[in-house]
Design goal:
single chain, about 325 residues, alpha/beta, Spore Coat Polysaccharide Biosynthesis Protein SpsA, Chain A, 7 strands, about 50% helix, about 10% strand
């Protein structure tokens, strides 16, 4: 199989047949074999019936249906598991992504040897309430990740098969697939300007809350990628800093009182000084952070994922 096209969908019954026809038309002059995998994320509008009709009429079409709405990341994850094409394309089902971009994306993976190519909706047909927060969010993602991509969240992307088989997307992490792939060792990540169509049917399934979730997920991803296998490096360091800071301040307060007693100077009781309580809190927090790091290490050492690494290739390995 040369190409797998994964299409997550949620209540997009009006657009599915039109999208299918558009994909077939866009690829009719191409010689490679391809499949379309529709992943129904718990639709309630008859989308699955439409997918079933398409599958019955064309063996290249297959489908996966969730019992309820789990989100786009879950749909992509199951689509990645089912994909068998050497190149994997993801696109949305709302007709805003153009299937005519697929051949050029395919060539970028197969001929230019990219691991992954992200679409860039340079000209968007969305209201300002969506475009401005998206630009701000993409700017933050670039600064945090170091990847020079303009549009992390474009649904139209292309991957080599081993990329999608090596990464895991969950929660709302589909926005950060380029970052996840990069930190899994896939360094050649590019982008391509793609045509963004105006929405033809229905309305967007994503609200303003996705911006807040996006920033929180970015922080979570950054933390997990750096410290998931060495939590003591973070919590232990912070704990030691807090403990030593509180200890030094407490020692200074006590030493100051001894000095005042020795020289018969006016004395202020230690328990009357707010700084002493702040130092005490710092010591307690330091101990708690250190213990949190220690517990994190115990959990990490017992995790089945601790020694899971992304191996690119092997030579003369017997498997023993």
């Amino acid at each position: 199989m040369d190409l797998s096209i994964i299409i997550p969908l949620y209540n997009e019954v009006e657009s599915l047949n039109e999208l299918y026809q558009w994909i077939v038309k866009s690829l009719q002059d191409q010689s490679y074999q391809y499949e379309m995998i529709f992943v129904d994320d718990g639709s309630s509008d008859g989308s699955w019936d439409e997918v079933s009709k398409l599958s019955n009429s064309d063996p290249r079409v297959s489908g996966i249906k969730f019992r309820r709405n789990y989100g786009k990341s879950a749909a992509l994850f199951c689509g990645f598991e089912a994909a068998s094409g050497n190149v994997v394309i993801t696109m949305d089902a709302d007709l805003q992504d153009s299937p005519e971009e697929i051949p050029s994306l395919y060539k970028m993976i197969t001929e230019e040897k990219y691991d992954m190519v992200a679409g860039w909706k340079k000209i968007r047909h969305d209201p300002f309430s969506k475009t401005f927060p998206s630009k701000l969010w993409n700017y933050t993602a670039r600064k945090v990740s170091g990847l020079k991509l303009h549009d992390f969240n474009c649904g139209l992307k292309a991957y080599r098969l081993d990329v999608v088989k090596s990464i895991e997307v969950y929660g709302e992490m589909h926005r950060y697939i380029p970052i996840i792939a990069s930190r899994a060792g896939f360094r050649k990540i590019g982008e391509k300007i793609v045509v963004h169509q105006e929405r033809k049917y229905g309305k967007s399934k994503f609200g303003v809350e996705r911006i807040i979730k996006g920033f929180l997920d970015l922080l979570s991803l950054n933390f997990i990628s750096k410290f998931s296998k060495r939590p003591m490096h973070l919590f232990g360091t912070l704990g030691i800093i807090m403990f030593l800071s509180g200890g030094i301040v407490s020692a200074w307060i006590i030493a100051k009182k001894i000095y005042q007693l020795y020289h018969h100077l006016p004395i202020r009781e230690v328990t009357e000084q707010p700084l002493f309580y702040l130092a005490l809190v710092a010591v307690i927090l330091g101990v708690q952070l250190f213990v949190a790091g220690f517990l994190g290490e115990l959990i990490s050492r017992n995790s089945t994922e601790r020694n899971k690494y992304h191996v690119q290739s092997r030579l003369n390995i017997s498997g023993k």
